[in-house]
Amino acid sequence: MKPLPLPVRVAAGLAASALEQARRLPQQLAGLPVTVVSEALQLSMRVQQHVTELAIKGDDVLSGLRPVEEEPEWATFDEDEPEAAEEDSDEGDPWAEEERALAQEVPGAIPTYDDLSIAQLRARLRNLTVEDLEELLAYEKAHAARPEFVGMLNRRITTVRSQ
């Protein structure tokens, strides 16, 4: 038997493939939304990567065209403002707060006790007697009863008594 012409064989193969795809269609429809979303996200990421690469190349090219500033007018340096830089770096640092509190300390008294942070109170406790500490502890327990303050006062009383 003589083989059929190529176009006929290709057409038969195409029809068989179409029939197979039609039979698998219900199974593929269930996963179609996930596939479409996944491919869309991949395409979006590839586009973002290409845009970023182009921007980097553009920055490289343009950086050669712009002159480099020696010292921008908005720049400040430590030697220009020593006090401001020191205060900024100490902000939020509990040890620096404690040192500042020690410098402002009034011996034997704690003014505005309720407004003190734990670091500020810790700095002032060094100069108090056991009686002063017990009075503060009683006040703390009667008013705010903050656990960290109560614990610190108890520890300080124990330390002072052992000395």
Automatic annotation (TrEMBL):
Chain coiled-coil ranges: none
Domain DUF8129: from-to ranges: 120-156
InterPro entries: DUF8129, LipDrop-assoc
Protein origin, superkingdom: Bacteria
Region feature (Disordered): 65-95
Stretches with biased composition (Acidic residues): 70-95
Alphabetical list of NCBIfam families matching this protein: LipDrop_Rv1109c
Record's protein name: Lipid droplet-associated protein
Organism: Lentzea tibetensis
